[in-house]
Structures are given as structure tokens and as C-alpha cells.
Amino acid sequence: MRSSTGPSNVIERHGSVLVVDDDASVRMIASDALSAEGYNVLEAPNGKVAERMIREGQADAVVLDLGLPEISGLDVLTCVRDFSEVQS
Predict the structure, then answer these.
(1) What is the rounded distance in angstroms from the CA atom of residue 44 to the CA atom of residue 63?
(2) CATH assignment of the domain containing 68
């Protein structure tokens, strides 16, 4: 979303999004697309890093690969739910 009060080349920043994927090219594509829309993008290459970032409250939203090695995306999702302020 572009700012309506500033220059047209200034992007209004939204919340932060954590992109979690073990494939660097997928992370790059998702990050580029989200950044272009004004989101502050954080990246995690695996579930361990993602869980740490989630516990630290670094992200407002998560784009998550469910097929992660070592710690599955479903386990990371459990961490998201445990540390989320959103009631299920």
C-alpha cells in the first residue's frame, strides 16, 4: 500500500511477516513479494530458528512451509498457537 500523504515512491510499512522455508529461493520469492507490499519481512531457514523468533515476538504473521526437515511445520504451528495472542 502506498502512502497517500507522502511521495509516491514511499511505501507505507505494515506489520512484520516471518517467512519460514528451508528452500532459499522460495523464501526469496515470498520475501520480495511481501516487501513490495510494504511488509517488514523476516526469514527463517528452519523450524528451530522460526520457533525462537516466534517466542521472541518478532513477527505479526507467519508464512510457513509445513514440510520442514527436523522440526515439522506443524510443530512450528503449535509454537505459533502457544505464543499467539489470537484466541482460537
Answers:
(1) 10
(2) 3.40.50.2300
